[in-house]
Amino acid sequence: MSPTTVSTLVKRIHATPTQLVLAVTGGGSGALAELLQVPGASRTVRAAVVPYAEAALEQFVGGKLERLCSADTARTMATACLRQACFLTGGDDRLSCDPAAPLAGVACTAALATDRPRKGEHRVHLATQTATTTRSSSLVLAKGRRTRAEEEQLVTRLVINHVAAVCGLEDELPLDLLDGEELRTAHDDTAFK
Fold first, then answer.
1. Residue-range domains of the chain with CATH
2. Can you give the pTM of this predicted structure?
3. Mean pLDDT score of the chain
4. Which residue among 66, 117, 172, 173 sits deepest, i.e. has the most Cβ atoms within 10 Å of its Cβ?
């Protein structure tokens, strides 16, 4: 069987009933382009935001964040995205969501290669939130082994894989991880609040 391509997987995503709001910061903006350039995007994407500056991200989530690039921040962003998805689909209350509705919040926060030396790790944290489930993933990238564009391409594939999973699809894009890199994923039945 041939590997799944981005456009093939995105077409399958758009064929599902899932509607989502997506937020990315620090990396992952390529996923927005991939999702929006395939016909049918308006059935899937309710909104997409890139709150890149710290103040923009804190405004989006509605409060101060301890760290901008962390698993907790990704989950907080995904919850804010789901609130927006509920609101945009006609819910009376932004803080409640019909558990049967195929709605999701998808978020990515990343610290990737930049034009100056980065003191910390190159890393990415992703999360999806539905009315009943939270899924999160984290990956520390091998620092200095990829260009910024190559890191962005990897993060784009991670975001698309998270979108596919929240849409109930089992196909995944290959990630081409380097030796020592390990994607850590967790699922839990955390109800949307």
1. 6-188 (3.90.950.20)
2. 0.92
3. 90
4. 173
